[in-house]
Amino acid sequence: MSDNPSTGHHREPSLAQKMTDSNYSKQIPVSQKIAYGFGDFGNGFMFDLGQAYLTKFWTDAAGIGAGVVAGIFAFTKIFDAFMDPIAGSLIDNRKNIGKQGKFRPVMMLSAIILGIMTVVTFTMPMGLSSGGRIIYAYAAYMIWGLVYSFTNDPYGSLASVMSRNPQDRSFMATSRQIGSVGAQFIAGVAFIPLMELLGGGMGSANERHGYFWAAAIFAAVGVLMFFVCFLGTKENVKIDRTKASKSASGSAAKDYLKVVFTNGPLFTIILMTLFTISAMNTNNTMMVYFAQYNLGNINYQPLVNSIMMGVSIIAIFSIPFLTKLFGKKKTTVVCLVISGLASLLNFVMPTNPTTFIVLVTIGYAAMCIPNGITWAFVSDVIDYGEWHTGMRKEAITYAAFNFSRKIAQSLAAIVSAGILAITGYVANAHQTSSTLLGIKGAMTLYPGACMIIAAIVIGLLYKLNDEHFERIATDLDAGKWEKGTIGDQDKK
Q1: Residue-wise over 146-181: b if at least 16 C-beta within 10 A, else e?
Q2: At what angle do helices 319-326 and 353-389 cross, to 10 degrees?
Q3: 248 SS3 class
Q4: Furthest CA-CA distance within the chain
Q5: Predicted model pTM
Q6: CB 204 within 8 A of CB 61
Q7: Distance of alpha carbon 82 from alpha carbon 63, whole angstroms
Q8: Count of domains in the chain?
Q9: Assigned domain for 1 exists
Q10: In Å, what is the CA distance from 387 to each residue of 35, 162, 242, 244, 474?
Q11: Separation in Å, CA 261 to CA 77, 133, 253, 400, 492
Q12: Which neighbouring-strand residues pair with 3?
């Protein structure tokens, strides 16, 4: 709005400007942004639990070979990755959206089922043959992954319709990452002691019993945290779904190809995520092995995780400040480089509890900052996709991003369990020097290399800067896309 000095009258703002002021500039209540983070807090009690301990459960408690476990993770994660676009398409095409919004009801219902399936994955029925155990593990984890898609796709899409304000999105990215690392912190510190308390310790006759009840407790807490997120959030950004649907082709496959494969910033985030998430998951998976065998005491595992995760949570609080001061891209690149160098140095240094804890903490904390910023990137590329194509497909776009996370998780499983198999790992036994070197390499060398590559990717390829996004947000709030008015059929 501007003043006319000659007449003394104020010019009435346009409808587009009013919409811009209400969506781009206006911030949502802090309580909603905090509540959003509880979703990933709950997610971590189920997802991160599996990433950190399911390999250990299958190799040691269930008696499945490390090479077979690598195959289970690789196949099921690839299967899950291809299920994500289907889940995203079904969610985007929901009709009769009620007052609870488009995403929140799907998220909550799926979270309850996910809690049940989390317990099922940490269960191995007695009396099964070797082949039966393998089939059970495949089936349980494939179903778990499918339900996870219907939980995480709407949760991730939710942030894009809560607010378009950049500071809100940085806050929600911070809140989400704090929730995620907070859950990792609790799982890393409490799960093994709880499992041993309930089951009698590693290698005991009741080891499976301990895993089952510990997983049940964690899953129950996870579902409760999702309920907090469901109650505390609201879909504030008003989207004209009727107009958006008119721009769609009517073919889910065609819409998916158009929305995803013409979105350059999304492709860059996907490529970066392949490296960052596979590095993080490999670190989390190998921590229990490194503590037990390389450091020589399983009790180091909760100690290292408490320090590593605790410092990371503190570091994540800096995301809004860093992104406001330096921007999302520059902050991401610098932190990735710091993380990579710390991990590589940890590999070349002799194994020592003190130096390992210091360097793994620096590396993990520096990694958690860009992983948190990624959630703000995702909300931005969802809006970019609508602005670029005239179609708003939040869940499909998020599903494409989640596809990369599933592939990264599969890659992490192949690296973790594959190295154990190649180097001759034997459960609950003295390990050879080659096995110890393999565990150390997976714990430090692989994440270090991944972080450096991820920094190069985001530094060279990501072109959606903050100024460009402000223009995009303004156009969308005015009902416009790159080549016209949203709702006009794209003839291109």
Answers
A1: bbbbbbbbbbbbbbbbbbbbbebbbbbbbbbbbbbb
A2: 60
A3: coil
A4: 90
A5: 0.72
A6: no
A7: 29
A8: 1
A9: no
A10: 28, 18, 16, 11, 10
A11: 22, 40, 12, 10, 15
A12: 10
- Measured in degrees and rounded to the nearest 5, phi and psi for residue 349 equal -75, 145
Angle between helices 264-289 and 394-422 (to 10 degrees): 40
- Beta-bridge partners for 484: 481
8 Å CB contact between 311 and 363: no
pLDDT of residue 409: 82
Residues 6+ apart with CB under 8 A from 189: 302, 305, 306, 309
Q: Contact at 8 Å (CB) between 347 and 440?
A: yes
CATH code, domain carrying 189: 1.20.1250.20
| Mean pLDDT, residues 284-302 taken together | 90
Give the range of the structural domain holding residue 216, as residue numbers without chain letter: 29-479
- Asked if residue 466 belongs to a domain, the reply is yes
Mean pLDDT of 140-167: 88
**18 found inside a domain:** no
Render the burial of 450-469: b for 16+ CB within 10 Å, e for the rest.
Answer: bbbbbbebbbeebebeeeeb
DSSP 485: E
CA triple 376-381-386, angle to 5 deg: 135
Q: Is residue 452 part of a domain?
A: yes
Q: What angle do CA 447, 175, 50 make, to 5 degrees?
A: 50
Q: Which amino acid is at 48?
A: D
The pLDDT tens digits of the residues spanning 57-75 come to 998 888 898 889 888 888 8
Round to whole Å and give the CA distance between 224 and 232.
12
Q: Mind listing the pLDDT tens digit for each residue in 368-407?
A: 999 989 988 888 888 888 888 888 777 788 888 888 888 8
Question: Contact, 312 vs 357, CB < 8 A?
Answer: no
Distance CA 453, CA 414 (A): 19
- The rounded distance, in Å, linking the Cα atoms of 382 and 463 is 15
CA distance 347 to 444: 5
End-to-end CA distance of the chain: 35
Amino acid found at 287: M
Partners of 480 in beta bridges: 485
- Looking up tokens 């476990």 gives 69
